[in-house]
Amino acid sequence: MQRSTELPTSKGASWKLLHSLWIGWTFTLGFFSWLAFAYIGIRARHSRWTLWAILYAIPLVMFAIFSGAPQIWITDTALTITVILGVLSVIHAFWIRKEYLLRLEMRQNQISSVSVTSRGKKWEWRHSLWMLWTLTFGLSSWIAFLYIGIRAGRVRWILWGVLYFAVFLLFAVSEPIFGQQSEITEALTGLLIVSGIASIVHAFSVRSDYLMGFENRLGEESGAERISYPLEAKQTTQSENLSAEPRSKHPENLEETVTTTNLKEDRPAEIRTTSPHTDAASTPPARKATRSESPQITENLTASGSSSISETYPLPLAYSWSLLASLWDPRDRYREQLRHAENMLAFLGSISLALLEKHEYTEADIDPKIPWQGGISFGGWKLIIQRSAKVLRQKNHSLASAIFKLNIGSEKKGFGADIARLISMRNDYHHGRGPLIEEDIVNASNEAQERVQRCMEAMSFLAQYPVRLIQDFDVDRHNDGFSLKCLRLMGDGPGFSQEKVDFPRALPRGDLVLDMGNGEWLSLYPFVVVSNCPRCRYRETYFIDRWNDRKGIAAMKSFERGHPEDRKDVSTSLARLI
């Protein structure tokens, strides 16, 4: 992926400048370059930059250890390496500044200005002053970790405090016992500096954990029990059974006749009925019905009711929407509402990426490596849609225009405001700050349902673009084209229309395509794929959740049940975009 000259974020110039001040640490001839990279590594949750911080700190530590040694050449060599690495760190900092701003904005979108705890930013900063004890290069780092260990009741941090104190104690007794110029004293001095640097990074990494743990302990002491319900908690057997078939558990093996459009001509093409054996073994054949090629979607979905969504929207959205109606427990329903909100953004973001040409990824400032490393977040999908919209507005197509008009970047009104609130609710729930008592859970579920409903209404244009699964194809004997055997994945299933459509070229079996109209089909591969889940034996649609480009594996996640699957072919296709 080529780097554009324009800075990558959608924030203003003041935001970019404020979050680039860390580069100033690299202008200290290497003495504080490590601090700059440790800072951005922790802020962006990127371990690679933290490792660079350790690398930049090694020559400085060596210089500190051998500064009083009789071998002057060792000290000079360590100082020279420190200065050289300091110069290189300046270039390195400017080189990764764009990626850091991207990651930082994505992380801020993920938390959506939500504090770590429910007590607000001021309370959090007041209870983070203990971190100042780590800025003494190891002399008092042990005090900081003993303090948070005792306050939060965490034995692990107390043990870390003991370890840091042991290093400090060895340093304190080394000079009286061995003398100031001894090699042992110098080695322990270097060890103290190293532990001090490590304690700074350590303190930043455990800050959020400490604040949440301390808040929970305060709640327990006041008699208020705090319970955390992870967002991806394993569903109960009842929820699994309900999610398996939201509409019908035992469909009949019936053939279905539908009418579609011949993509080569303006006249309607005859859709030939197909055998149920053309469908995947894991999904029952279609139920008997007759559907028109373009479902009539009303402008106001509130009038048409939830059944319209379950029958006319693409499968990835219709299935999880129908699942919500089958859940009676408010806690289960609230969890699924937040998962459905993630499905909405994942599907919309995947379509946005599929609409972009390869060269337009640079124009949209989208690097596929960044959002999927370590697992894409709710805010990551939002940022992808927001960045893609800048390019999609220039395309002369109704679908691209509709995505742009959603204005997902606005958090004050409309679709963007509802998405921002859902992100906030999801993060509160994931970090144990969500509703606890049943009354609050019911209220939160009602609010989530209203916002999800409005978002689904705003995305009603998706019902006008059928999603088809290519199952097979034949060569047309009479025309220079192909007869594609497709399954129309519209509605919540389990029965889908089986179609044969004339098309000018063959398409890969198993791919999903979006019918854009006027004979134009958009391949959704590799962003949305179909596979028979090895876990539940059902055919499911998947989006990209995580990508390890080094191992060549893309971790997929199903829209229907959230089941995981690893795909190497998807990873290979993603690598070609870079």
What's this model, at a glance?
The protein has 578 residues and is α+β, with helices and mostly antiparallel strands. The protein has helices spanning 13-18, 33-43, 47-65, 72-111, 121-126, 141-152, 155-178, 183-221, 237-244, 301-304, 306-312, 315-325, 330-355, 360-363, 369-372, 378-392, 398-405, 414-430, 438-458, 568-575; strands spanning 260-261, 268-269, 467-475, 482-488, 497-503, 512-517, 520-523, 528-532, 539-548, 553-558, 564-567.
End-to-end separation in angstroms reads 4 Å
How is the main sheet built? 5 strands, antiparallel
**What structural class results from the helix and strand content?**
alpha+beta
Name the strands of the widest sheet in spatial order.
Answer: 5-4-3-6-7
Helical element count? 20
What's the rounded overall pLDDT mean? 78
Secondary structure: number of strands: 11
- Beta strand %: 5-15%
Radius of gyration (CA) equals: 29 Å
Question: Share of helix among residues?
Answer: 40-55%
Shape descriptor reads elongated
> Low-confidence parts, pLDDT < 50 over ≥5 residues?
1-8, 224-305
Could you name the key traits of this structure?
578 residues, alpha+beta, four-stranded antiparallel beta sheet, 11 strands, 11% strand, disordered N terminus
